[in-house]
Amino acid sequence: MTEDLLELGITELGLNLSENNIADLELFLQEMSRWNRVHNLTAIENEQDSVRLHLIDSIAVLPVMRRFLQTSHPKIADLGSGGGLPAIPIAIIQLDWQLSLIEAIRKKTAFLQHVRGKLKLKNIDVLSERVENIALQQSGQFDAVISRAFTNLSRFLELSLPLLKPNGLVFAMKSKRADEEMSAVCKDNWQLLADEALFIPNLPVERRLLVLSPVRKFPPIVSSST
């Protein structure tokens, strides 16, 4: 599969992946393919499509995320992680980032736990809960939240807000429908920091990464009577 990764353009992303990175990304795809035959983790089964639409699509966000996440060891939540996308490919490359994979469907969290052990990924946690429950348990604990095709943007932001630290960031992986979804977001509550076109080699489909932060609201100043 290494030839597929190289031919389909993974090196063109400029991420300077090590041989261990490549080997772990390949192992992740192999395990996903093996589990998919029984557990139906994803509708994408073709090997080349898996490389393009799973691996490369997931790690294409890294140049933008690196630019915005300046703190050491940021804590990131992946909402509706499913088969571990984009969190596991990101965790394989960014060993200094701590990722929490939130997924309520048990067969998918079983796969995520399996991959965590198989790849010896000490920088991920698998949380088999609904996002709303995690928000109650870990309110304000995350530097960033990310999601890939989890829900519409407004709902994603609503679910993300309780999880974020005061200066937290939301990374929303979107397609060309991003403008339509952005128009439904309340500008009084959210600030769009970046709208980045993602370079996906050998994939004609448009991909974008929206970076948003909650607008900090301060209580009104009440003048004291003299």
UniProtKB/TrEMBL annotation:
Enzyme class: transferase
Alphabetic keyword roster: Cytoplasm, Methyltransferase, rRNA processing, S-adenosyl-L-methionine, Transferase
Coiled-coil intervals: none
Pfam family for this entry, one: GidB
Gene3D superfamilies xrefs: Vaccinia Virus protein VP39
GO cellular component, one term: cytosol
Leader sequence segment: none
Reactions it catalyzes: guanosine(527) in 16S rRNA + S-adenosyl-L-methionine = N(7)-methylguanosine(527) in 16S rRNA + S-adenosyl-L-homocysteine
Superkingdom, taxonomy of origin: Bacteria
Subcellular location: Cytoplasm
Any one GO MF annotation of this record: rRNA (guanine-N7-)-methyltransferase activity
EC number: 2.1.1.170
Transmembrane segments: none
Binding site for S-adenosyl-L-methionine: G80, L85, V131, E132, R148
Role according to the record: Specifically methylates the N7 position of guanine in position 527 of 16S rRNA.
HAMAP family: 16SrRNA_methyltr_G
PANTHER family in the record: S-ADENOSYL-L-METHIONINE-DEPENDENT METHYLTRANSFERASES SUPERFAMILY PROTEIN (PTHR31760:SF0)
Homology family: Belongs to the methyltransferase superfamily. RNA methyltransferase RsmG family.
Protein name per UniProt: Ribosomal RNA small subunit methyltransferase G
Originating organism: Polynucleobacter tropicus
Lineage: Bacteria, Pseudomonadati, Pseudomonadota, Betaproteobacteria, Burkholderiales
